[in-house]
Specification:
Blueprint: E1 10-21, E2 24-35, E3 38-43, H1 50-57, E4 65-70, E5 73-74, H2 80-83, E6 86-89, H3 101-111, H4 119-129, H5 145-157, E7 163-167, H6 175-190, E8 194-198, H7 202-208, E9 211-216, E10 219-224, H8 231-245
Parallel strand pairs: 3-8, 3-9, 6-7, 7-8
Antiparallel strand pairs: 1-2, 1-4, 4-5, 9-10
Length: 251
């Protein structure tokens, strides 16, 4: 289980974030703060707005209202040098199918500003961390879904980011890879980084997260204690209560 850590600086934050898509309100004034040295889990049912919130925090979508910031700076104003400190994987693993796994991870390292001389060792370490060594010279289109997931994760981690945002990172991973990923994510927090991760695997989050925030129907409806005895029961109790308190809201 995660150990107690003193609160650090807020590195990733949403304040009153609102967003509509296709005429439907997806986020209703969401507040969220992810601190240095912590792993913050975001959980909710399908359609709760988790991915939309992550996209806004990463500047991939604009908010209709409220603010999203990284390192205390609004995302729209963040200098490119600071974006180099951010790693992310949102939804499906995005890799170049005609490039090898090594070339995909190398491209990510260069795009994040790593010195060319340091790239080969950084790629090798990232591959070793996720058990990718034997697949490094195979083209992306010939990799299994789980291996493509590892390549995308290695690409998000190769530059040792300070802020890491991962959307369902353990999807398609085998149990050994899940353990490896847990160790890598924990390492980011231990060196002072801030991690925001979404997952449907509540048992995995219990081993990983310091803080668990529940998003439901576009609103933060509470938090869960990752050290609790029955995280799944607590989650569904919270969702049930939220449904009683928010009648008639759009899904």
């Amino acid at each position: 289980m995660p150990s107690e850590r003193p609160p650090g600086d807020v590195l990733l934050e949403a304040r009153g974030v609102r967003r509509s898509l296709g005429g439907d309100v997806v986020l209703h004034g969401v507040d969220l703060a992810v601190r240095s040295g912590s792993i913050h889990a975001l959980v909710g049912m399908n359609g709760a707005g988790k991915t939309t919130l992550m996209r806004i925090l990463l500047g991939m979508l604009s908010a209709d209202g409220g603010t999203a910031s990284l390192f205390g700076i609004p995302v729209a104003s963040l200098p490119s040098a600071r974006w180099r400190e951010v790693g992310q994987m949102i939804e499906t693993p995005a890799i170049y199918p005609e490039l090898t796994a090594r070339e995909n991870i190398t491209a990510a390292a260069l795009l994040h500003g790593l010195d060319r001389a340091a790239v080969p060792d950084s790629v090798r370490r990232a591959a070793e961390d996720l058990g990718l060594e034997q697949w490094l010279d195979r083209r992306g289109k010939r990799l299994s879904l789980g291996t493509r997931q590892k390549v995308a994760l290695a690409s998000a981690l190769v530059h040792r980011p300070t802020v890491l945002v991962l959307d369902e990172p353990s999807n398609s991973l085998d149990p050994s890879a899940v353990v490896r990923l847990r160790e890598v994510i924990t390492g980011v927090a231990q060196r002072g980084g801030a991690v925001l991760v979404s997952s449907h695997h509540l048992d995995e989050l219990a081993r990983l997260a310091d803080t668990v925030t529940v998003l439901h129907r576009g609103q933060v409806v509470g938090g869960l204690d990752p050290r609790g005895i029955d995280l799944e029961r607590a989650f569904f109790d919270l969702i049930y209560q939220a449904d009683q308190d928010l009648p008639g809201e759009a899904e």
